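STRUCTURE REQUEST FORM
Protein name: Preprotein translocase subunit SecD
Source organism: Mycobacterium palustre
Requested output: structure tokens
Priority: standard
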Amino acid sequence: PPPGPAPAPAPASGAPAPAAPAPAEQPAPPDPRKDLAERIADEKGWRQSTRQGIQYLALQFQATQCNKDDILAGNDDPALPLVTCSTDHKVAYLLGPSIISGDQIANASSAMNQRGIGYVVDLQFKPAAANTWADFTAAHVGTQTAFTLDSQVVSAPMIQEAIPGGRTQISGGDPPFTASTARQLANVLKYGSLPLSFESSEAQTVSATLGLTSLKAGLVAGAIGLVLVLLYSLVYYRVLGLLTALSLVASGAMVFAILVLLGRYINYTLDLAGIAGLIIGIGTTADSFVVFFERIKDEIREGRSFRSAVPRGWVRARKTIVSGNAVTFLAAAVLYFLAIGQVKGFAFTLGLTTILDLVVVFLVTWPLVYLASKSPTLAKPAYNGLGAVQRVARERRAAAHVQTGRA
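Status: completed
Returned output:
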């Protein structure tokens, strides 16, 4: 793992003494065509130089690069000076060699300061580092020191007095620490230097061509499934099938909008497993429509008109729809939290489409079908496709009248 937080002297302006002459050329950024080791070596050559002239130019150049990814992150030599930026990408620093490594920090915690206004970070060094810290602070009163993690400055407080005993308190500057920022800094100082190791649970190498082919195949499969559902709905349910199509379009638009927002704000990427979850979600949404429409048919078979069957069928169908979607969502949630790799992508999109299915059925499908039931034109069997069901209802009523007459 990269070196942990380490204090080092850092002048407020970041500028060294102007004794050495400046070189004629400004250091150039690493060439991306080189391999990683060469690029890191080039970066160290000018950002960790011991020549003051190069340090000065490196500081000026690094100030324009703070908002970019740092290739030197975690790869610097703690025994050499370092030109780097703060973690908020606002300030460039010239740091001296590290004097204390992160594993010498015994504990760090956040608390409200003694005046009850604002927050501070309490830091405790281990005994070996406590003496080093005491000597360093005594020799550098009135100057800044820096705490770094992955080669970036997480805090650069001013040394106000010599600090013996190994206990140090960092108070916020401008702006002062809030409870959140103090806790965050304490966690960085406390856990940033842990010797963590990672085990790979899953690794796949997919060529760009193969990945694009798989993505296109998944999208084509989803489009075919959607078209088949729409054709079946239009042939079997007619006007109700058209309302199904409108509901599916609304559901698809909401899914697309949410995925775009997730991609923009949390860098979510839709993979092949996620597309599979979307395809299953189409079937789940279609199931809800079928349950609703079949309940309407049941009401018509019992002798009710299309207009009166719709609200009664909805009351009976919505419980089944909610129960079915709840089971699907719980299954998706279990998969998401317990599974790894691509299964999580499948579970995420399945759960998302399940929630949106309920939104669409309650806010789009049901209102549209209810409005259709109020239309005299759409109530005709030729438009709603319920002629066979209505004939069965008439035959049952006729049979009931015959039996009553015989009795």
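Reviewer notes: The chain has two domains: 7-191, 209-406. The CA atoms of residues 238 and 384 lie 6 Å apart.
Form closed.
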